[in-house]
Amino acid sequence: MTANDFISARTLRRTIIKQLKDQQCLDSICSEKLRITISKHTRKILEMISHLLMGFAFENMNTIDRVAFEKIAHPSLSVENWFKLRKEEASSATEIARLGTLLRNAEAEYDRYAPLGFISGWFSNKVEDQKIEAAKSRRNLLRAQRESEENVHRSKVEAIQGHATLFLRNAMSKDGLRSLLNSSSISKQLQEALCQMTKEVTAVWSSHIRNQTDSLEKVRAATADLFGIYDREDVSDSTPLVRGKYASASN
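User: That's the sequence. What structure does it adopt?
Assistant: Structure tokens below.
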């Protein structure tokens, strides 16, 4: 082994280390690409299922969607209860809008009778005081009614969100997706979305395999060359600088 062999061995080891670091970097890049790809298609599928769920209406829900709903939804949520909850939420939202209109009118009326607020009472007569108090009472009553209805509406929205979250979680499971693929009005679109996701994930993984294989071949070649340098029988003859008179002296 010459000094050049010694230097070559160090170079080969650096090559191996670099390739191993590159492989780790490739793993990280592949992992991120897979995460982005899967997340993108998962969002698309979730939106598809969400539109199906929120688009259900009692009068236009077909049999296959009803079957899919009953298989995926929590046992405590029937189709009828879901429709009832959606109807109550919509009715509550309409009532809030109605009360909001009445409240704005009541506030405008109070502002006409008391443009300076409570200070207006200092300069008003008895009749004017009665009008101010009546307008104030009506305004406060409508405020309380709207606030109460907003609480009702909030509870309905929270209930819908809770049921929807559970439905989506169940729908994204293996059994849930199978149910939607076998029996639902979005089976075709869902199949296309899943196929596209599989295609893109496969492309990312195939590219990663090629890159890793190329890197491993470089490691294999460098490792073979390194074995060729060190795998020698005569240690003294292959030891750097131990030659000539030094080798003879040791004998």
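The helical segments are 3-55, 63-72, 79-113, 126-171, 174-182, 187-230, 244-250.
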